[in-house]
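Project standup — Tuesday

K.O.: blocked on the structure for the chain from last sprint. Re-posting the sequence here as requested.
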Amino acid sequence: METKRSVALAVPMTICVASGSFAQGGMQRGAGQGSGGRMYDPKTAETVSGEVVSVEEIHGKGWGQGRGGRGGGYGVHLILKSDKEEIALHLGPGWYLDKHGLSIAPGNRIEVRGSRITFEGKPAIIAAGVKNGDQSLKLRDDDGLPAWRGQGRPQRGQ
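H.V.: unblocked you, prediction finished:
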């Protein structure tokens, strides 16, 4: 009986941890496969362009951590309609985009470079960089590490 209860509690906890990890930009490559690392894969990097259909603010655990964990933050996700498809784009924390003055709205024509992944059974792109008119912002390095990593928090050894 105790084992069944432990398993019943472990499954929802695993789902919560995995979804919180995605929201924090700490996504695991091959999530669910125990392979570690990040989902961003430089081998699947591509550039897409098109019209922004919608802009979503994803609120939840982890999005305020770039400001020292004060909360109230959100992640920015877009739906982009290219000449081939509609695809979800995962940009990053709203505070980081705001800090760099990047504003994206439905109807904007943008270009995004990023890693194509499958998220919740659907194609998506984890953005490494975005161009909107004369604005551009680097979101991740060539290995997929977030540009906002460590900002707003004391670094180790300080």
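K.O.: great, moving the ticket to review. The mean pLDDT is 75. The two ends are 48 Å apart (CA to CA).
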